[in-house]
Amino acid sequence: MTAAPQAPVEPMELFRTMLEDEFAAQTTRLTQLTVYARLPRHAGYDPEVLDGLITSARRRIADTAHALRRMSEGSYGVCATCDRPIPLGRLRIAPTALHCTRCGTEPRARSTARREYLGVTVTGAGRLLDPPRARRR
Ligand SMILES: [Zn+2]
C-alpha cells in the first residue's frame, strides 16, 4: 500500500487558502465599492461611509497580500518583534497577524499606544530618561 493515510491538512495550507479567499473577496468588494463611488448618488451610500469601506477594503487587501508574501518568503507565522512562532490559534483568528500574543498589538494600534505613552512621559520623570533633543528632531 503506497497510498498515504488521510493526512491532516497542513495548517500553512489552510492559512494560505484563507488568505487567498480573503484577498479575492476583498478585491471583488473593492471593485464593487469603486463602481458605487462613481455612480450618481453613490448607489445610495453615504459618501463618507463609502470612503471608509473603500479604505478598509484596501487595507485588508494590502495586509493579506503582505501575509501571502511572508508565506512565500518563509517568514509567515513568525513574530516580527521577537522572532517566536505566532500561535496557530492566533493565526486562525487573525491570519494576517504580524506579532505573537505576547508582543500583542499590530503596528497601527502600537503606534497609537506609544504616542499616548509619550504624552504621559512628557509630564513625568520619564522626560529625564528621554532627551528632548531626540524627540524634537
Ligand atoms: Zn513576539
What are its keywords?
mainly alpha; binds zinc ion; 137 residues; 6 helices; 0% strand
Using the coordinates above, name the CATH class of the largest domain. Answer: Mainly Alpha
Biggest sheet details: none
The ligands found in this model are: zinc ion
Query: What multimeric state do the chains show?
Result: single chain
What is the annotated CATH architecture of the largest domain?
Answer: Up-down Bundle
CATH fold-level assignment of the largest domain: Four Helix Bundle (Hemerythrin (Met), subunit A)
Label the overall shape. elongated
Distance between the termini: 70 Å
The figure for the number of domains is: 2
Order of helices and strands: HHHHHH
Structure description:
- With 137 residues, the protein is mainly alpha-helical.
- The chain folds into two domains: 11-100, Four Helix Bundle (Hemerythrin (Met), subunit A); 105-137, no CATH class.
- 64% of the residues lie in helices and 0% in strands.
- The chain contains six helices and no strands.
- The protein has helices spanning 11-38, 47-73, 88-93, 107-123, 126-129, 132-136.
- Helix 1 runs antiparallel to helix 2.
- The longest helix is centred in the first third of the chain and has 28 residues, at 11-38.
- It starts with 10 loop residues before the first helix and ends with a helix.
- The structure holds zinc ion.
- Residues 79, 81-82, 84, 99-100, 102-103 line the site of zinc ion.
